[in-house]
Design a protein that fits this description.
Elements (H helix, E strand, L loop, with lengths): L11 H12 L2 E2 L11 H12 L12 H15 L9 E5 H13 L5 E6 L3 H10 L2 E10 L2 E4 L1 H7 L4 E7 L11 H14 L2 E5 L25 E6 H4 L7 E5 L2 H14 L5 H13 L1 H25 L2 E3 L6 E5 L11 H11 L2 E2 L1 E2 L9 H5 L3 E5 L4 H11 L4
Parallel strand pairs: 1-12, 3-4, 3-6, 6-7, 7-8
Antiparallel strand pairs: 2-9, 4-5, 8-9, 10-11, 11-14, 13-14
Helix pairs in contact: 1-12, 2-10, 3-10, 4-5, 4-9, 11-14
The structure holds 4'-deoxy-4'-aminopyridoxal-5'-phosphate (PMP) and glutamine.
GO molecular function: kynurenine-oxoglutarate transaminase activity; pyridoxal phosphate binding; succinyldiaminopimelate transaminase activity
Pfam family, one: Aminotran_1_2
Organism: Leucobacter aridicollis
């Protein structure tokens, strides 16, 4: 894994959060909320701790949580799942993704992802010894869009897995039904399994519809859906995630997962079971708050002179920093490392979500990502400081 992709170094999120802490910068880099999720859900975890839910939960996850995940998928998307065989609880979405990739891909297999991609996707493909092939999401007037010709060129006989991520980190794109249908067609043609990372499933804006990949015609049987409570309930440190899909695929993921962690987070599993059952109102409130903050950040970045693309989902706004670059600060990566000490704000370069030297890395070389999942005071401080760039 110690490769040219730098996978043994701290992640870009850890690096930028450390830089933000060292410089006192407002941290709009790493995507985690600085306001904890609902108190009643935290109280539910305390109650579970007190009532003795402190030993290993079952390897597949507490039954109450598996039932709540199945009920959530049915209520929101009409996806029916057997909690016994089609739901697996994991230590965050990260473990579900890594276990799925390790279970299904190996040397000689190609795994196709979008580019830019979330960092752990590439690391897990490298751990599996598989070959990473990418399909660009490119900025357009309407947001970041899938390059269909590149998709058709990327998916072929050697494709074992296609990794989808919608709503998409870092671009904030919510893939359209037509884009997902094109991926579905390619998956069927190559007889590939699809792993879909839907951790931002509830965080969509402007009326954009989140279309779960498993709901596309014919796709349920070849799709592993991954999500997590971290983003939905602003409890990222609890690391309660899950994978759902056909029994045979979930069994393969479980076979790996049992030797990664076996199980985790007993009292949190119990609390998230309740959150999924009773927390729809909290989810709606979070989406409204984030929508407002998204608009504030977008307007402020544009006013300072960044080129921006309006995100339809996630925690993130991508911005073109070209107007602020010069010989000393020549690209987005340099800008992200310069900004905390000089201006007092942290962000993340989009190059960190791209393969070194790829066409997408080149196209996005001047771009950075800012998160708006911060409290109003932090956002206001960041915006005030960014005005100094003008
Ligand atoms: N996938 C994406 C696209 C993410 O942005 C994140 C983290 N924010 C994860 C997976 C990891 O989720 P978890 O913290 O539940 O492991
Ligand atoms: N998903 C978060 C982000 O994109 C980071 C989570 C992490 O640091 N692993 O910023």
């Amino acid at each position: 894994l110690a490769g040219e992709d730098g996978s043994t170094k701290p992640t870009i999120f850890a690096e930028m959060s450390a830089l933000a802490a060292a410089t006192g910068a407002a941290n709009l880099g790493q995507g985690f909320p600085d306001e904890d999720g609902p108190e009643w859900i935290r109280e539910a975890a305390i109650a579970a701790l007190r009532s003795g839910e402190n030993q290993y939960p079952p390897g597949r996850g507490a039954l109450a949580l598996r039932e709540a995940i199945a009920a959530h998928q049915l209520r929101h998307y009409g996806i029916a799942l057997d909690p016994e065989s089609e739901v697996l609880v994991t230590v965050g979405a990260t473990e579900a993704l890594t276990a799925a990739i390790l279970a299904l891909a190996g040397p000689g297999d190609e795994v196709v992802t979008l580019e830019p991609f979330y960092d752990s996707h590439a690391a897990a493909i490298a751990m599996a010894g598989a070959t990473h092939v990418t399909v660009p999401l490119a900025p357009t007037d309407d947001g970041f869009a899938l390059d269909r010709a590149a998709l058709d060129a990327a998916v072929g006989q050697a494709t074992r897995l296609i990794l989808v991520n919608t709503p998409h980190n870092p671009t904030g794109a919510v893939l359209t039904r037509a884009e997902l249908a094109a991926i579905a067609e390619a998956a069927a043609r190559a007889d590939a399994v699809v792993v879909t990372d839907e951790v931002y499933e509830h965080l969509t804006f402007d009326g954009a519809e989140h279309v779960p990949f498993a709901t596309l015609p014919g796709m349920r049987e070849r799709t592993i859906t991954v999500s997590s409570s971290g983003k939905t309930f602003s409890l990222t440190g609890w690391k309660i995630g899950w994978a759902t899909g056909p029994a045979q695929l979930i069994e393969a993921v479980t076979a790996i997962k049992q030797f990664l962690t076996y199980s985790g987070g007993a009292p949190f599993q119990s609390a998230i079971a309740r959150a999924l059952a009773e927390g729809d109102g909290d989810i709606a409130a979070l989406r409204e708050t984030l929508d407002r903050r998204r608009q504030v950040l977008l307007d402020s970045l544009a006013a300072v002179g960044f080129g921006t693309v309006r995100p339809q989902g996630t925690y993130f706004v991508c911005a073109d920093a070209t107007p602020f670059l010069n010989a000393d600060v020549p690209d987005g990566a340099a800008f992200a490392r310069w900004l905390p000490a000089e201006i007092g704000v942290a962000c993340v370069p989009l190059a960190a979500f791209c393969r070194a030297g790829s066409a997408t890395a080149d196209r996005l070389r001047n771009w950075v990502r800012f998160t708006f999942v911060k409290d109003d005071a932090t956002l206001a401080t960041a915006i005030e400081r960014l005005a100094a760039l003008r």
